[in-house]
Amino acid sequence: MTTSETAPPGEQEPRRDASVPPAPAAEGETRADGESAAKPASDSGPREPKPKKQKAPKAAAGAKPATSAPTDPNLIEVTVIVPVQTSDGRVREVVEAMASELGRLGKSFECILVFDGVRGVAWEEAQKLAREHEGRVLPIAFQQPAGESTCLTAGFERARGAIIVTSPQYVQIDPYELTRMLAAIDAGADFVSPWRHPRIDPYLNRIQSSLFNWVMRKIIHSPFHDLNCYFRAFRRQVLEEVAIYGDQYRFLPAIASRQGFKVVELKVRHLKEWGGTGFFGIGVYARRFLDILGVVFLSKFTLKPLRFFGTLGGVFALIGGGLCLTLFTNHVILQEKGPLLGPIFMLGVLLFVLGVQIIGFGLVGEIIIYTQARNLREYRIERIWESGTKKHDDARSDEHGRTGSDGGATRLDAAGDERGAGRGSDAAGRDRGREEHRGDP
Amino acid sequence: MDPRTPDGVKISVVVPVFDEEQNLRILHAEIAAALGGMGVTWEVLFVDDRSRDGSLRVMLELWREDPHVRVIQFRARSGQTAAMAAGFDQARGEIVVTLDGDLQNDPADIPALVAELERGYDVVAGWRKSRHDGFVLRRLPSKIANRLIALVTGVRIHDTGCTLKAFRREVVEKLPIYAEQHRFLPAMSAGGGARVSERVVNHRPRRFGRSKYGIGRATRVLLDLLSIQMISSFSHRPLQYFALLTAPFVVGLTGYLTYLVWRADNVDFDTQWGRVALVSFILLFMLCAYFLMLGLLAELIVKASGLHRPMSPRMLVSGPRRSA
User: Fold this and answer.
1) Nearest CA in chain A to B286
2) Are residues B163 and B268 in the same domain?
3) Which CATH number goes with the domain that contains B153?
């Protein structure tokens, strides 16, 4: 929570300008570095964004051994994932906007178009794009509609880039903002959450959307203003550590920031908005409500289900028991007239039963957590300073550790370094299979 | 030598740290003095739960000065139990000792705990017989909680809340440690077949910093107690636990039935009390059936997890080694 921050665009601007020009200079050596490390693909560089990102602007594009390029995972820097949900999705616009922007930055990229059970014009267009961009554009399709989150998950599973960008099926945000978002990641962010500001869609939409974001701010203390915009950029590592399912992609910025990732909110220029004008409908509200309920429950009580169910059930059972007890004492001791088997008794006894049942659910929840506790790690390690590998990388780690402790500004440097430390202890034969706290897919 | 401890580290001391800047250096010196005098190999793991003061800086100074020191930093604040779990996961020693970062535990007690462990126990808990904390806010609730825990789990430990504890590696490797459960570790390991003992340890008043505990966790402790009772004694047969929970209802139902049979001639469901009894009867019966179903569901979960086989054979493995 504490590491998340909101950066006004003004603050981000200079960083972009500063970070773009030096890229070619750093390129040669960092690239060699990346290659020599020869890591397994699953492990590829989520924590070493700096060297990776700045490599090979012209080289990759110029050499363009189009077919072989994507087979080498080290050559993909950015993966753009676009869920396509209607057959008139503007895939060409999106792909070309991304391609030109990323090409300008000299980033090698791939674009995964996930068709959510729709084909039609967009699918043909995607096939054409796949041919034109030779392996850079990968259209995949579900047989039946599976929902946006499933599409994204399917895309994530195939993504090879160290940085992942998701975009809606039309050019919603000024493509230039991508440059700023990537610059923010360069500057140390793990996740860039956009904030459409000012928004250009109808008044009613804006009210509903800001209501949602306000509720989120109140309930899960998410500091973000626009959780509904899916034009996002983040490090691959975020998704490797934060499991999302169902509709949780919406809440990813909040969840990631809760887990200690550095999430930056960036004001972006909103170009247009598709669909969903007017009142969103009861169904949407109901789904959002359930989403929020699920997220709150999971974020607070994952490991202690009984605290949630027990408190809830306990309150019910106490109220119910209390009602019955009052009723009976009134009748027996005060000799009160009136129906005994009335609404109060029914309410009381049913509440009691309900409460006890809810507690029962909590107990089952505890059993589930207990049996699965090995899979649910409660902590995330930023880095470890090992005693034995000290000689190995003493100066380096120490320096990073110090700067890291000072302000958190270079936190990612330190984190990137930890991988080095991890490998070091690997070499020393001391790894007991626990270094991959972060690398695990 | 144990293959899992290739370095031959004998004792790992795990210290969860949250805002203990001033205490750390003293603590480290005391640990070094206590363990250095034992003539064994050791290490100390400081687990930084994202301290907001200069704790990490001090830890790194210590790390640079002393090769025994390892430092783990969390990415987000995760709590003391998580810090212990991380320490357990990373510890290399045959014996793992946990210790508070606030100097209230005395590292000089470690040799005694270890000696007790070597007498054939798997877990040795510290017992702060004379505590230096406020009575109403800290000692009284703690006393009640300890009584309750002992009563519920059947593990007679006077002071489960004392962080100073020594574990055999096998125990911590097998125990799932999560969600503020460190105080239940002895009970849980006893449930798994470990032999648990305790020793009186020194307890000192706080010197720097402030306590991170307070009262107001009574309901949480009670609920935790309920779950710990189930997990420590019934995790391999949850159906029995749920059946046990229905016991009062079953007794009530049986009593009522007996009453009906006994006075079979003048049961009248048309009186008010008769109707109340009938409704209660039906609902309690439903509740019992429902709990048994939940118990079956829990059995299913335990079976599916594959966790039901294990604990006792595991503990047997540590048997011969201990005598050696």
Assistant:
1) A353
2) no
3) 3.90.550.10
